[in-house]
Design brief:
This protein is mainly α. It has helices at 2-26, 40-57, 69-82, 84-87, 96-99, 118-127, 143-155, 161-168. The chain has two domains: 1-30; 40-168, Orthogonal Bundle (Cytochrome Bc1 Complex, Chain D, domain 2), CATH 1.10.760. Bound molecules: heme C (HEC). Heme C binds at residues 79, 82-83, 85-87, 101, 103, 105-106, 113, 116, 121, 124-125, 129, 132-135, 137, 149, 153.
């Protein structure tokens, strides 16, 4: 009998919580603006889940396309065309678009991902990052192109002099 009461109480508490959540959503109490900063809880939940997803999805995966100068040059061009608008060019300055994101887009020339496993960047570029402005490119770029971009991100700070010069020629995305 006692167990039945306990269970009943638990179910009522759950229903109340769900009702409070629903009221919060329809009353517009869940922040919907982008010109604020994500809360600690929001950041923790998003980052922890992303880390666990990537760990599971990239186990044992490595770059099948060696990042030689040809692949890096292709990756650089793809980055300039598809990513610099949000992640900046070699000067690491933000565009107007980049300045307005709720979850900030890292300026990769300054705040790079050279230390992340290349498979992690590949996964992020292919699938995007939910609840942020990071799009998924899996439907629009081939796996070869995605690996070339990921390889470029991994070596952005140690390019050959010729490629480095090519990188510095990519027009700045900075806000004018
Ligand atoms: C419309 C803007 C936008 C475009 C275009 C975009 N990104 Fe992103 N990207 C973001 C945002 C915003 C984040 C931050 C997400 C987060 O903090 O979880 C992000 C995160 C990332 C990260 C994770 C950085 C880290 O510190 O772990 C990588 C890597 C990345 N993007 C690569 C790319 C590449 C490569 C391209 C082009 C193929 C690209 N992005 C295009 C907005 C964009």
């Amino acid at each position: 009998m006692k167990v039945a009461y306990l269970l009943g109480g638990f179910v009522v508490a759950l229903l109340l919580l769900a009702a409070a959540g629903y009221v919060g959503v329809v009353a517009g109490l869940v922040p919907a603006n982008a010109d604020g900063k994500p809360s600690k809880l929001e950041r923790w939940a998003a980052k922890t889940s992303l880390r666990a997803t990537i760990k599971r999805a990239t186990a044992g995966i490595s770059n099948p396309y060696p990042p030689d100068d040809e692949a890096l040059s292709d990756g650089l061009k793809l980055y300039a065309a598809n990513c610099a608008v949000c992640h900046g060019a070699a000067d690491g300055e933000p565009s107007k678009l980049a300045k307005g994101f709720y979850v900030r887009a890292p300026l990769l020339a300054k705040d790079g991902v050279e230390d992340n496993p290349v498979s992690e960047s590949f996964w992020k570029i292919k699938h995007g990052i939910r609840f942020t402005g990071m799009p998924s490119f899996g439907a629009t770029l081939s796996d070869k192109e995605l690996w070339e971009i990921a390889g470029f991100l991994e070596r952005m700070d140690k390019l050959s002099p010729a490629l480095d010069a090519e990188w510095k020629r990519v027009p700045s995305a900075a806000a004018k």
